[in-house]
Specification:
heterodimer; A: Nuclear Transport Factor 2, Chain: A; six-stranded mixed β-sheet; 25% helix; globular; B: alpha+beta; four-stranded antiparallel β-sheet; 22 strands; binds FE2/S2 (inorganic) cluster; binds fe (ii) ion
């Protein structure tokens, strides 16, 4: 993609959107966050395996649409997760965790149909999510994300999110937060 | 280890009290590693994970890494994952296929049947001294495969797996058999692995039949996440057991479970409401199973724990969990998810999605379990806390033996299954003989 003025503007728009989204989560505005998700959302976090050199492309990550991953779900399920937190008796998030999402290294990987008329964007980023819970529980989740974003009016919606967490055995007791 | 652990003081089954020490003390933890995990049959994995010669899956026994491997001839082995030279892990991949395990350190190599094959510079450095035959990978003396599940014990004198399981096998069968009643036929579709800061026995106990902890799952019950939730059904799963008599069963070897005895007149309860194809499939399986098993079809599984640390969910979400100890206060949970290997693709898809939203660290139900196990462990570590035992007095004496099923059977929610579990646990820590550990009548044992 040519680094035109339109390209830089688009990247800034996408960055702004991702920062806004992270902020909604950190402010625990979960229902507002759900509004940013497309109805046909795919939300996917594979498990990562230790495999021999040369087999990474084929075998390192579990696959969307087959077998078991950490998350391979739709908007209904994420809505249920939000609903569960809002019951006030989901003890894994009651009292609520303190969470900060850091998003960086935002890149435009693909823009359709064109940078000047961007309707769909594939954006890559890195995340560092810090979770602090009750008194002494601390978890740091670091990884990469690939988001398919769709223009809706003057804003964007997330149509697909792939979350690559840099862990094999999960070093956290729970994945009770959103990525 | 020569010290005697004060099990009698710590585990008082007559009064229904168990000391917190066994959940937090390093002494008890060492006792478990040395006297329990070195003897009991432990769940290793599933044959569907190693279908071909050379396939391996790295598993654990207690704190130690082991390799489950199918050798070039097709025979299944379990080896300690540690080189005989200086102990390097010979396999640091999780799963795969190989013809050799080559040690990264000094390059000794082992064939898939565990034999030491390659020793660099053998002629110059070892000829006449090192006998390769004597330096195979350390292999478990006892291995058994039951309906595709692989189990192993480090004790050469361990009873056969089926004697160890005893009457618990009737319940385990309901986990491992096809939904239509054909024996076996399950496959593993994925394995969760995660660590959490709690004693491993909290997790095992949960599956022994701790139905009493239902209130901790109130949030999922309120919102409904089951396979029929989108049709308005509340709760964690479909209520296919509504018309059954729930039973909590303890077995002499320490296994325990919550199962259900359905009336002989039972009919299929529609489930998976938003997926007509899946509902129809399970209706077919239900009828077929009834036809095939007759009266035996009335026994349906809920949760259970095969002593010491292999737990299961029998129906929804079907799978086997293993609680690997890391320390007195840290556990690595592994959850193997099971489906019928020959189930239609749409059925498998609906099941795996349900399993993921229910189970493990990302599961809406089980997150709350982890929260409880963590803080129950944390709040039991203190000096004062440790002076005060846990209460295990629920439904004391309220069970019948071998009526209406083999084992100690309670028709109400009970802590008889954990009381029974810790009775056997104490026997292991005291180094009891196998007849005592599996509750084999001494007369019969002597006659064998
Ligand atoms: S430790 Fe394996 S070859 Fe030396
Ligand atoms: Fe639970």
């Amino acid at each position: 993609m040519m680094r035109s003025l339109a390209w830089y503007q688009l990247r800034e728009e996408i960055e702004d959107f991702l920062y806004l989204e992270a902020d909604l989560l950190d402010q625990r505005r979960f229902k507002d966050w759900l509004d940013l998700l497309a109805e046909d959302l795919i939300y996917f976090m594979p498990m990562r395996r230790n495999v021999k050199f040369g087999q990474h492309a084929e075998r390192e990550n579990t696959k969307q649409g087959e077998g078991i991953s950490w998350f391979d779900e739709d908007k209904w399920t994420l809505g249920k997760r939000v609903e569960q937190i809002l019951t006030g008796v989901h003890y894994a998030e009651e009292p609520l965790s303190r969470v900060t999402h850091m998003v960086s290294n935002v890149r435009l990987l693909d823009v359709r149909p064109s940078v000047e008329d961007a309707q769909e964007v594939t954006a890559g980023c890195r995340f560092l999510v810090y979770q602090n819970r009750i008194e002494y529980e601390n978890f740091t989740f670091v990884g990469r994300r690939t988001d398919e974003l769709r223009r809706v009016g003057t804003s964007w919606q997330i149509a697909r999110r792939e979350i690559i967490l840099e862990q094999n055995v999960l070093l956290a007791k729970n994945l009770s937060i959103f990525f | 280890m020569t010290t005697t652990l004060p099990t009698d003081q710590m585990i008082d089954l007559k009064r229904g009290m168990i000391s917190r020490e066994i959940f937090v003390s390093p002494d008890f933890y060492r006792g478990e590693l040395e006297r329990l995990f070195t003897r009991a049959w432990l769940f290793i994995g599933h044959e569907s994970q190693i279908p071909n010669p050379g396939d391996f899956f790295v598993s654990r026994m207690g704190e130690e890494s082991v390799i489950l491997c199918r050798d070039a001839q097709g025979t299944v082995h379990v080896f300690l994952n540690s080189c005989r030279h200086r102990g390097m892990k010979v396999c640091r991949y999780e799963q795969g296929n190989t013809s050799l395990f080559v040690c990264p350190y000094h390059s000794w190599s082992y064939t898939t049947d565990g034999k030491l094959q390659g020793v660099p510079l053998y002629r110059a450095l070892y000829e006449g001294t090192l006998n390769r035959e004597d330096w195979s990978l350390i292999e478990v003396p006892r291995l058994a495969i039951y309906k595709s599940t692989v189990w192993a014990s480090w004790d050469p004198a361990a009873p056969d797996l089926l004697d160890y399981l005893g009457s618990a096998v009737d319940h385990l069968d309901q986990v491992l058999d096809c939904r239509d009643g054909r024996p076996g036929g399950s496959e593993v579709i994925g394995v969760h692995k995660w660590v959490f800061p709690s004693n491993w026995k909290f997790a095992a106990e949960n599956f022994l039949g701790d139905t009493y902890h239902n209130p901790s799952h109130r949030s999922v019950d309120m919102i409904g996440i089951g396979p029929s939730a989108q049709r308005g059904q509340k709760g964690r799963r479909d209520n296919e057991y509504n018309k059954g008599q729930h039973v909590w069963v303890g077995h002499p070897a320490g296994h325990g479970m919550h199962s259900v005895l359905m009336p002989a007149t039972m009919e299929y309860e529609s489930s998976y409401a938003q997926y007509p194809v899946v509902d129809e499939y399970f209706r077919h399986c239900f009828d077929e199973r009834k036809r095939r098993l007759g009266e035996k079809a009335c026994l349906l599984p809920f949760t259970g724990n095969i002593f010491p640390n292999a737990s299961y969910h029998g129906r929804q979400p079907r799978g086997i969990c293993v609680w690997h100890p890391h320390s007195p206060t840290e556990t690595e949970g592994w959850r193997f998810f099971l489906v019928d290997a020959d189930a239609p693709a749409e059925v498998k898809d609906v099941l795996r999605r349900f399993y993921m939203r229910y189970s493990g660290p990302a599961g809406m139900t089980e997150q709350d379990d982890m929260e409880n196990w963590l803080y129950a462990t944390a709040a039991s570590r203190g000096t004062i806390a440790r002076r005060h035992p846990f209460n295990y007095q629920m439904s004391m004496g309220a069970y019948k033996t071998n009526d209406p099923l083999p084992g100690d059977v309670s028709l109400q929610i009970t802590e008889q299954t954990p009381r029974n579990y810790y009775r056997v646990y104490a026997s292991y820590l005291n180094g009891a003989p196998w007849d005592e550990l599996i509750g084999r009548p001494l007369v019969q044992a002597a006659a064998e």
